[in-house]
Design a protein that fits this description.
By secondary structure, the protein is α+β, with helices and mostly antiparallel strands. The protein folds into two domains: 173 residues, Lysozyme (Orthogonal Bundle); 175 residues, no CATH class. The protein is built from 14 helices and nine strands. α4 crosses α5, α4 packs parallel to α8 and α12 packs across α13. The longest helix is centred in the first third of the chain and has 14 residues.
Length: 372
């Protein structure tokens, strides 16, 4: 099997196009005028894709469009930020909606502003006399204000990098923005399975493994082929890329050949398999992986604490060093003796493993890539 040399995320990131709004407001009024905040409806969904209309609450969709028009930035980019940060206010993390709650970094509200940034760019969008980062209107309009001040609409990549200093974040937001703009999605059939979705061209063109999409947010093994994970259409592109990367590893035997560079290796062990997935999806640069050569024990404290919404990494040093990754509900692991009841249960090397629980033979440190 040929493992290609470029991160799949490079193909997944859609370049965010600047919208020509003209001279909407005087520069002196930017950040000061209070809008009339509506609740959405037909005007809000005009120009939005079927996906945007289906998954973005009407209030949020309306706010994205109003803020984008006021500040002269792409509403879909604002929606992309809202999706990545707090799923348009639907993420159960208290920091997204609970007044005063913050995440470990100190960010709060549906657009996850830090206090210092909020003090500089926060606006009272609904005219209630308060500048509140947990208020959806204030948060979304403030995000538009911040993007405008950071280079949008002329340079969205620069503006998004200012919002969150990570290349994967820029790509993630731009990918969601592209999906939210006004191209209707095909209506899925009533029967769950790979026939519901056409293969994703961007994913398929850079891999030798088959790419089949299914509805929802949970990956499944292809019927009759335990080496192929079916890719859920409802997860972020970076998670889809991780599943494709996991598929690319399925024929390889266990061994150390993937250190320090997992690309094109003839063998992979537990840590080089995780390294490859994180590289291939654009989460970790290959230069960083080659330089640091992360081993299982290095993932005990890597990333953010706790399980992620879509991706979780389990690492341990006791009773032995080991690491595996769970992607959209599927576990990619080199350990299988007594921890796999699926079709790959007799195979060593990196494989998709099936078990109704996380293996209990170790005390796991559970972490996740930031934002995932």
């Amino acid at each position: 099997m040929t493992l290609t040399a470029y991160p799949l995320r490079v193909l997944l990131a859609a370049a965010a196009a600047a919208m020509a709004f003209g001279a909407l407001v005087l520069a002196a009024l930017l950040g000061t005028a209070a809008p009339v905040v509506g609740s959405g409806g037909a005007a809000a969904t005009a120009g939005a894709s079927a996906l945007a209309s289906r998954e973005i609450p009407p209030l949020y969709l309306n706010l994205y469009r109003q803020a984008g028009e006021h500040y002269g930035v792409d509403w879909a980019v604002l929606a992309g930020i809202g999706r990545v940060e707090c799923d348009h206010g639907q993420d159960p993390d208290p920091s997204c909606t609970k007044e005063g709650a913050v995440n470990p970094a100190g960010a709060g509200g549906p657009m996850q502003f830090l206090p210092g940034t909020w003090a500089e760019y926060g606006v009272d969008a609904d005219g209630d006399g308060r500048i509140d980062r947990w208020d959806p209107a204030d948060a979304i309009w403030s995000a538009a204000n911040y993007l405008r001040a950071s280079g949008a609409p002329g340079d969205y990549a620069r503006a998004l990098f200012a919002y969150n200093h990570a290349d994967w974040y820029v790509a993630e937001v731009e990918s969601w923005a592209a999906r939210y703009r006004g191209s209707p999605e095909p209506v899925p059939s009533a029967v769950n399975g790979p026939s519901q979705q056409a293969p994703d061209v961007a994913l398929q063109q850079d891999t030798d493994t088959p790419v089949e999409l299914i509805d929802g947010e949970h990956a499944e093994l292809a019927p009759g082929d335990g080496h192929v994970a079916l890719v859920p259409a409802g997860v972020p592109p970076v998670v889809q890329a991780m599943l494709v990367a996991g598929n690319e590893l399925q024929e390889l035997p266990y061994g150390p050949a993937g250190h320090p560079d997992p690309r094109g290796a003839t063998q992979e062990d537990c840590s080089s398999s995780v390294n490859y997935v994180l590289y291939r999806s654009g989460v970790r640069p290959i230069a960083e992986i080659i330089r640091d050569n992360p081993l299982a024990q290095d993932y005990v404290n890597w990333g953010d604490p706790g399980p992620g919404r879509w991706v979780s990494i389990y690492a341990t040093t006791e009773p032995t060093n080991h690491v595996f990754i769970v992607i959209a509900g599927l576990r990619l692991d080199t350990s299988y003796n007594g921890t796999d009841v699926g079709p790959n249960r007799f195979e060593g090397g990196p494989r998709w493993r099936i078990l109704d629980q996380i293996p209990t033979w170790a005390h796991w440190s559970v972490r996740h890539p930031p934002g995932l």
